[in-house]
Amino acid sequence: MSGSNDEDLASRQTAGSTPVFESAFKDFHVRTEQLSAIDSLRVAIADELRSATDELLATSANLEDLEETHRMIGQAVARLRLKPHSQEFVGPSESSLAPMNSFLDRSPIIGGINPLAVPMRMQIEGDGGKDSVVVGHAKFEAAYEGPPGCVHGGFIAAYFDEVLGMAQSLSGNPGMTVNLTIDYRSPTPLKQPVVFRGWVASIDGRKISVLGTLHHGDTLCAEAKGLFVSMRPEVFQRLMEIRQAQER
Predict the structure, then answer these.
(1) Do 189 and 151 contact (CB within 8 A), yes or no?
(2) What is the CATH number of the domain that holds 230?
(3) pLDDT tens over the chain, length 248 residues
(4) Of 180, 175, 171, 161, whose CA–CA distance to 229 is shortest?
(5) Buried b / exposed e across 185-200, counting CB within 10 Å, b at 16+?
(6) CB-count exposure of residue 159 (10 Å: 0-12, 13-18, 19+)
(7) Where would I find the H helices in the chain?
(8) Is residue 67 part of a domain?
(9) Can you give the residue range of the structural domain that contains 228?
(10) Which of 35, 54, 188, 238 ranks highest by number of CB atoms within 10 Å?
């Protein structure tokens, strides 16, 4: 999760003190309910849209075929546009302000419903505590290309943000990204499985320092370090209220 709006950041936290507030991001990456039949179908549609993106980038179809494809896609979009719409977050986990299922499914990084996402598959190595390691498995297709045959560095940074964000959530009082630094060691290949790893390096009051790596096989492609600051519940609530006001 990027971008902290909390004006009372780490500079006001007494060194070594322990936050006592309930984190807005407690268990943020934990699924609390299974996908409904409708959302499962939305995932399938998102998969088709990802395939459509790859085909659009590579196709040598003639003008007539592209015109027909455009018409068909337009019809599908128009059908959905006529139906009711809602962007509200639903299904928060017990004892948390965070919209679990909505975040998991809509995320531009790991969300199965979001066609922008690869999506990355996340898991935890360890007991789930702050000493555990978060592992993210991904394969970037042509839509994510930067240098020829390689993943765009901006996408690598975004996916690191997700992995380190999940890692810092294991601290018990996680928050939002304050700083993220990426060192690119070797080109990251497209269309090949890659593995992100992230773990908590240290905790100092509200400040959580996290480290990460990206590998393709045995090749180190990039390293990352991030600083996160635990966010007070009222700040998260304010962000939710702003979002809801924008929807209205």
Answers:
(1) yes
(2) 3.10.129.10
(3) 444 433 333 333 333 333 434 444 555 566 667 888 888 999 999 999 999 999 999 999 999 999 999 999 999 999 999 988 766 554 444 334 434 456 788 889 999 999 999 999 999 999 888 899 999 999 999 999 999 999 999 999 999 999 999 999 888 787 889 999 999 999 999 999 999 999 999 999 989 999 999 999 999 999 999 999 987 666 666 766 776 676 66
(4) 175
(5) eebbbbeeebebbbbb
(6) buried
(7) 37-58, 63-81, 100-106, 153-169, 233-247
(8) no
(9) 10-33+87-247
(10) 188
Identify the three-state secondary structure at position 7. Answer: coil
* CB-count burial class (<10 Å; 0-12, 13-18, 19+) for 138: buried
182's tokens: 């990426």
Q: Within a domain: residue 59?
A: no
The closest alpha carbon to 4, from 237, 164, 229, belongs to 229
Whose structure tokens read 């480290």?
211
Q: How far apart are CA 94 and CA 97, in angstroms?
A: 8
Based on the structure, what is the number of domains in the chain?
1
User: Is residue 242 in some structural domain?
Assistant: yes
Q: Both tokens of residue 24?
A: 């807005």
The secondary structure of 17-35 as a DSSP string is: ----SPPTTTTTT---SPP
* Assigned token pair, 142: 């042509």
Is 72 within the bounds of a domain?
A: no
Sequence-separated (6 or more) residues with CB below 8 Å from residue 245: none
